[in-house]
Write a structure and sequence with these properties.
By secondary structure, this protein is α+β, with helices and mostly antiparallel strands. It has 13 helices and 23 strands. The strands form 7 sheets. It has a 5-stranded mixed β-sheet with strand order 12-21-17-19-14. A 4-stranded antiparallel β-sheet has the order 2-9-6-7, covered by helices on one side. A hairpin with an 8-residue loop joins strand 6 (71-75) and strand 7.
Length: 425
């Protein structure tokens, strides 16, 4: 920063339009239409960039290229309109992208232009008719600051120093975010590994196979596999006719099936929504310890997602869901519903095409390992700790990313704030 302060001392800033002007700094062009079939029929090594921002905007690779060298591209249409990228090498762009080529690189640095347009381009997006757009005739109006315009050598030196600072800041931010993301993924894998291991009892079974019949019998006495619907284990009760229109601001708690895979985790002690006391009289109610299960979903993964209800009051359960009243540890059952062995047993019972379903009668046929209450509690205690650690990282990560983004944008804007009293059209 001290070097930049020294470079900027006493420096004037000139302003030039981006394009279509005698005083312009760049020229603009658009990409071409490339269909999905074209991409599939011309697979190669050269990237094609489109209007998306995921994967750096890349939608495929073809065997030819339209551009070679350094450029800035921008998204012209859709939700990401006004997003800019710095490109190098051989590549192509589609018709929903624009490309900027600097006329004199001895006077303007591409990365400097990229950082400036990262701030300014979004301001020129037109959102009328529900489809955001940033066409060339708007893009070309953006004014570009040129520090020390009378001295191109010093101007480039200033631009490069600003770029160096922002590149360093970006790299550090990206590194930290990648480290946090990797840690979160590692924690999730660790959690999933121990959950599968603890709830499979395979090690115990393998040990028994290597011992005498008596030991095997002792093992079977400790851990038995029972159907969820066995009389000694539990029963499934279908939810009632609860719909979203029945929600009230307060009253009796309720769980709608769609909330189970969008709002709730392994267990809950309070509900997101409520119904009136009058409506509750005719609703089907789950009590403390019951498992509330979504029996309908748009995908196989979410169908049969479950949440253990650990609140003190009884709650209403919607249709397209059921609740499981049982004699087991509530969290133990909820964790079991997350395991691969449950998923394997569930899959043959899934029906439907667009909407996927598993009915309560079929759920009752799924087998669960049933150890002693003490062992169930021990397993739950271990998984609670692992889930808590994973959840804390999951919550911290988006907050940290948002904080770093704000910090980056603050310094970027600070470095790229120039007086605008001498802008000329």
């Amino acid at each position: 920063m001290s070097k930049l302060k020294e470079l900027l001392e006493g420096v004037e800033v000139g302003w030039k339009p981006l394009a279509r002007n005698d005083n312009a700094v760049a020229e603009l062009c658009r990409g071409r239409v490339m269909s999905k079939s074209f991409l599939e029929e011309n697979i190669g090594v050269y990237p094609v960039y489109s209007s998306q921002t995921a994967n750096n905007g890349e939608i495929g690779n073809i065997n030819t290229f339209d551009f070679d060298g350094e450029a800035v591209t921008w998204t012209t249409d859709g939700a990401n309109a006004g997003t800019v990228f710095h490109r190098t090498g051989k590549f192509s762009i589609t018709n929903v992208c624009g490309l900027i080529k600097i006329l004199e690189t001895s006077k303007l640095n591409y990365r400097f232009l990229f950082y400036w347009l990262s701030i300014e381009a979004k301001k020129y997006v037109y959102s009328g008719m529900g489809n955001p757009k940033l066409m060339s005739h708007q893009m070309e109006k953006i004014q570009i600051p040129i520090p020390c315009p009378e001295n191109p050598t010093k101007s480039l030196e200033i631009q490069k120093e600003i770029v160096r600072i922002l590149d360093t800041f970006t790299e550090r931010t990206d590194t930290l975010i990648n480290e946090l993301t990797t840690e979160l993924e590692d924690r999730k894998k660790q959690y999933n590994y121990y959950r599968e291991k603890l709830l499979s009892f395979k090690d115990c079974l393998n040990n028994c196979l290597n011992q005498d019949l008596q030991d095997s019998q002792n093992f079977q006495d400790k851990v038995v596999w029972k159907m969820l619907g066995e009389e000694s284990v539990g029963k499934f009760i279908r939810g009632g006719g609860l719909q979203k229109k029945d929600f009230t601001k307060s009253g009796i708690g309720c769980i709608h099936y769609g909330q189970i895979y969008t709002h709730y985790g392994t267990f809950a002690i309070r509900t997101k929504t409520f119904i009136s006391e009058e409506f509750a009289k005719k609703a089907r109610m789950a009590k403390y310890g019951d498992l509330v299960i979504a029996t309908t979903s748009e995908n196989d993964e979410d169908v049969c997602k479950a949440v253990a209800w650990l609140g003190k009051e009884e709650i209403a359960v919607s249709s397209d869901a059921c609740f499981y009243t049982h004699s087991l540890n509530p969290k133990y059952v909820a964790y079991f519903f997350q395991t691969e062995q449950f998923q394997k047993q569930k899959r043959p019972f899934i029906t439907g095409t667009k909407v996927r379903r598993v009915n309560a009668d079929d759920l009752a046929k799924i087998k669960i390992p049933v150890p002693s209450p003490e062992e169930q509690e021990r397993i739950v205690a271990i998984l609670d700790k692992l889930e808590s650690l994973t959840a804390s990282i999951s919550e911290a990560l988006p907050n940290e990313i948002a904080l770093r983004k704000m910090q980056y944008e603050y310094y970027r804007d600070l470095l790229l704030t120039f007086p605008k009293d001498n802008i000329k059209a």
